[in-house]
Amino acid sequence: MNKFEQLGLNESLLLAIKDLGFENPSEVQEKAIPVLLEKNTDLVALAQTGTGKTAAFGFPLIQKIDAEDRSTQALILSPTRELCLQITNEIKQYSKYVKGINTVAVYGGASITEQARDIKRGAQIIVATPGRMQDMINRGLVNIKNINFCILDEADEMLNMGFYEDIVSILSDTPDEKNTWLFSATMPAEVARIAKKFMHDPAEVTVGSKNSGSATVSHEFYCVNARDRYEALKRLADANPDIFSVVFCRTKRDTQAVAEKLIEDGYSAAALHGDLSQAQRDGVMKSFRGRQIQMLVATDVAARGIDVDNITHVVNYQLPDEIETYNHRSGRTGRAGKLGTSIVIITKSELRKISSIERIIQQKFEEKTIPSGIEICEIQLLHLANKIKDTEVDHEIDNYLPAINEVLDGLTKEELIKKMVSVEFNRFINYYKKKRDLSGEKGERSERSSEPREIRAGDPVRYFVNIGSRDDFDWMQLKDFLKETLDLGRDDVFKVDVKEGFSFFNTDGEHTDKVMSVLNGFDLNGRRINVEISKNDGGSRERRDHNGRSGGGFGGGRSGGGFRGDRNSGDRSSAPRSGSFGPRTDRNERSSAPRREGGFSSDRPAREGGFKSAAPRREPGSSQRESAPRRSEGSSDRPASRSFDDAKTRRPRRS
Ligand code: ADP
Ligand code: MG
């Protein structure tokens, strides 16, 4: 008898479980399923994301549904459309051997009449987001007055998202005798309140300690200069060639900017944030699931409900404003018993936050240093060698062998290997050869402290910064941006004066170090912020002559300013084609190469969700750039890359 059988599940479920490839129940399943099968009881189950909660309620629910009766018997509420669809899909798989069970998803952004029609046809199980469900009830399109089961999935997230009222109202529309099963990763006060109000003597299942992080996730932080944040991210990606990750930023603006930079630099990345349309977000998620995207750059809000398995790394490009949010972020990896890593890229001034997070997750962070160029080269080289070793040879290539042999005639095996590896590797080595190491560098601080200035706490300091109305800032927006970026209070930034290509602002002298270290080199949509202490006091702002800088904005007139000079500009303008791997020639050759006709693509089906249609474009009015990888080489008209490994190394990389 297998373990699922021991839990009391029936034959049709066992068959479906076998198809799914589940071998053993997860802990929450082991604890919840027997209780739910044996008793008609309410239940509160606390378990981290990725522990298999869907099946923990899905299996017993399906077993308890009367498939002969076509009326609505169960309502599952879940926070997002994404999750809603996912749960629906799972339930359908679980119930595939049970004749007559219908599950319908109900969520915003799609036709309400069609959803109502699907329900009318007879749906025993409705999976809904609270907002849309409330809508349907108001319009009399659904009847949940006789349901036997109500499941609140990810209750904490639903309440986080402000669905309290909707949930209360929906639950009031259901019969008292039903059973309510509440699943949640954490148990904040609001969840407890719902439980108390709507549940009778619930059974309790807890996996792991309440509110603590998943045990399968390890936590690391990398301390870097603020200006190196992005470079650090790139190196972490380069040092993990198989990375499949969600990169969290704090704002939509940063999310978009980081994604665009990554794409520009040749990584397979995409942005996910609230300024994208639903269709765009769906496209991005589909590509991410299909692993055409290795680095999904997301805001916390947009990433809610991302339940993608096998994410190797969660990267906190910036820490969240609310430390509690860290837990939700890191829970995106280490799912289903797999190991995952949650990485924090942090600056010195934020270091104290690490111990606050450690207290919340009840786990320790490991401090790591960003790998050096040499280390990265070694990793990539071995990765490449392994890839060559594991590459399956398509024997269509045999036809071309004589010609190839002729070209390569006379090379020894050793020479051949060196050359082959170098094809992909040279640019990479060249890039890192010129790069300094990022971690452990204290240069920036000492450099700055040698600058002649006397700044005391208590004195206002005025700054010149090279962003202005041209960057879509008015004074309020700039003030907000500064407060947020510098993590300062309401009144800490003052006398903000925005010009076209530059601006001025004041802070107290006590914040000067922070202003200089965080802001200098800060990457704003691909522009590097430059801030200097103005000799002006802010009273007569216009006096200072900024011609050199204000006119040319960034590119040109950045020679002044002493300490930050060469390193910045050097990095940017001479930045070699970084990733180098699958370098640009790759793209060029590929696109000019004969396609299909070659014959070898015929037995390599193009990947699902071909990028052309899936690639989201930004809404009109925002920047022209696409926010998804530009697979202009098209997955459909070239030999498809099937593993995401392929996807990455074939991508053109530029810096
Ligand atoms: P949660 O709702 O707790 O975040 P899910 O129910 O989404 O987790 O499950 C996470 C992943 O684990 C899914 O891909 C699911 O198919 C898989 N999974 C669930 N139960 C098992 C199991 N017993 N064995 C193997 N994989 C499982
Ligand atoms: Mg879930």
Automatic annotation (TrEMBL):
Biased segments, Basic and acidic residues type: 533-548, 584-620, 627-649
InterPro entries referenced in this protein's UniProt entry, alphabetically: DbpA/CsdA_RNA-bd_dom, DEAD/DEAH_box_helicase_dom, DEAD/DEAH_RhlB, DEAD_box_RNA_helicases, Helicase_ATP-bd, Helicase_C-like, Nucleotide-bd_a/b_plait_sf, P-loop_NTPase
Any single GO CC term annotated in Swiss-Prot or TrEMBL for this entry: cytosol
PROSITE patterns: DEAD_ATP_HELICASE, HELICASE_ATP_BIND_1, HELICASE_CTER, Q_MOTIF
Domain Helicase ATP-binding: 34-205
Residue ranges annotated for the DEAD-box RNA helicase Q domain, each copy included: 2-30
Gene3D superfamilies: 3.30.70.330, P-loop containing nucleotide triphosphate hydrolases
Residue interval(s) of motif Q motif: 2-30
The EC number(s) this enzyme carries: 3.6.4.13
Compositional bias annotation for Gly residues: 549-563
Similarity comment: family membership: Belongs to the DEAD box helicase family.
Name of this chain's protein: RNA helicase
Naturally occurring in which organism (per UniProt): Flavobacterium aquatile LMG 4008 = ATCC 11947
Lineage: Bacteria, Pseudomonadati, Bacteroidota, Flavobacteriia, Flavobacteriales
